[in-house]
Amino acid sequence: MATATAAATGQVNAKRKPVFVKVEDLKPVVETTPVKTSKRPNRARALLSRPSPRARIAECVVGDETGTIIFTARNEQVDLMKQGATVILRNAKIVMFKRTTMRLAVDKWGRIEVTEPAKFAVKEDNNLSLVEYELVTVSDQGTN
User: Fold this and answer.
1) Three-state secondary structure along 94-119?
2) Cα-flanking dihedrals φ and ψ of residue 48, to 5°?
3) Which residue from 1, 3, 32, 93 has the fewest beta carbons nearer than 10 Å?
4) Which of these, 88, 130, 81, lies nearest to 113 by C-alpha position?
């Protein structure tokens, strides 16, 4: 309705510019804005999928100058994740794998764009997917 009203009045909202986030700034269970990464060679492996015999899933290590993280590519996303390719992940989100480690994923609302080769060296010694997290329940002690 808001778009129909804006079109009727002649007002069109300008698109916001994307804000890129560095890999080291990713936190558990936080949806992120676009991340520009470079896929590392010889790191992809195909996984078996149960939902449908046609579904394809691959895990790829992606990263930037601040670190790396495992990216889970699904179906047509697998074709875009080539060895050594530089991609922009739009509307990527953090998915907790087995409730302890982070994975990066792009769902149906996101987009993967292949772009020109990266002008940065990927920092491979800071893999955020190797960090294990634990969910801690904190009781509210401030109320009497």
Assistant:
1) EEEECCCEEEEEEEEEEEEEEECCCC
2) -80, 145
3) 1
4) 88
The alpha-helical segments, DSSP class H, found in 12-134 are 77-80
Q: Please give the single-letter amino acid code of residue 76.
A: E
Asked if the model's pLDDT at residue 1 lies above 50, the reply is no
Q: Is the dihedral of CA 123, 128, 40, 107 positive or negative?
A: negative
- CA angle at residue 26 from 16 to 40, to 5 degrees? 100
For tokens 């890999």, the residue is 23
- The average confidence (pLDDT) of the chain is 79
Integer Cα distance of 127 and 71 in angstroms: 11
- Using a 10 angstrom Cβ sphere, with 0-12 exposed, 13-18 middle and 19 or more buried, the burial of residue 105 is middle
pTM of this structure: 0.67
